[in-house]
Every structure is written in C-alpha cells, then in structure tokens.
C-alpha cells in the first residue's frame, strides 16, 4: 500500500486504497452528462484514472471512443469495450498520439504529491490534440472543511467523509466510509486542497489554461493548451 493510503473491506484493494468491488457498485451520477455537454459528439477521449469503467461505459454508450488508463490491473480488468492501458498516469507517453479530449476526473489533480500532480497535468497537455480540450474534476470549495458529512444515495448506501486531518506540507489525510446493506468499505487517502488561484497556476505550469468552469460549483473545468 502506498504511504498515507489505506483501504479496508471485501475484495481487492489497489495501492491507493480503492476497493475494486466498491467501485463496481458505485452509481454513475451526473458526470457523463457534464462531459457530453462539454465536448464534440463522437470525440476520442483519453480517460486518465478510469478505474473499473464507471464513466467509461456510459461514455461508450453515448458514442464516444475511449482509451482508458489506470495503474491497477484489477480495475482495468472490469473495463469493457475500450482500449485499456495499465500504468501510472504521470508517466504516460503514447509517442505523439493525440486525443480530442483528455479527462482527469476523480479529484486526481488534488493528489498529495505535487510532483505526481505536475506529471499528471503534463500528461494531459502532452496528449491533447490541436483544437482539443482537457476536462478536470476539482474538489468542491468545502470539501476539506464540511466534515464530517454524509449522503444517503437513492440506491440505498451511505457515503460518509468521516474525517479530514492535517498530514503536513499542506496535505490532508481524508477518511471516507461507504456502507451498504451487505458490506462496508473505508478508504484513507492524501489530498492537497487547491484554491482557484493555485489550481489555475498549476495548469499554467503545465502549459494549460481554463477555457470554462462547466458547473456552477466550479468542480468541472474545461482547459485548453495555452495560446
């Protein structure tokens, strides 16, 4: 397990504490709607951090072509209908291959390790084609302060952010709990809060800039290569 990361519960657990069976159970949510509204129909999407395909499969159903990247072979083995690439996002280099859309969701831009974040954003910039865009999912403004909090999903499980504790160097240790009628999982991970200014500065360092904040809460962003 990666230092600062931990996961408990049934089934395989990835090095960053994600439980494969849990992610197979999680509902899709509104993300595919946000993505569909923000990019051209039929676009080829490079999905960085696809996991089990929670967003991959709905995007395929909507007519997109998806190349799914994840460092966990257990996660990728659940992806169907997409080209898959197993390896760390921050090291990905597909030899000049470009995509209409590069997507970095799941709050990965908030990874605790700044060098990893820089690598991830460089991967985004390296693989976005001319006229293309990068879609990034950010944490909400109160992600680290509105704690503890919980939400009961209509499908019948509870997701709880149980604690957020300082871990040093501007990074927090976040503990999430997922409780289903027949099973429960926890995940502890490191996350670095980023103000809007810090986020935009990180994009600029990678040669990207904000094109549009796509949702009223600013959690979904369309970025483009700097002119």
**Structure classification:** alpha/beta
Q: What's the oligomerization state? A: single chain
Cα distance, first to last residue? 40 Å
The dominant shape is: globular
**CATH superfamily assignment of the domain at 18-140 and 194-225?**
Vaccinia Virus protein VP39
Uncertain residue segments = none
**Proportion of residues in β-strands:** 25-35%
CATH architecture of the domain at 18-140 and 194-225: 3-Layer(aba) Sandwich
The number of helices is 6
Instruction: Please report the total strand number as a whole number.
Output: 12
**How do the helices and strands follow one another from N- to C-terminus?**
EHHEHEHEEHEEEEEHEE
> What is the highest CATH level, the class of the domain at 18-140 and 194-225?
Alpha Beta
Walkthrough of the structure:
With 227 residues, this protein is of the alpha/beta class. The protein contains six helices and twelve strands. A hairpin with a 2-residue loop joins β8 and β9. The mean pLDDT is 97.
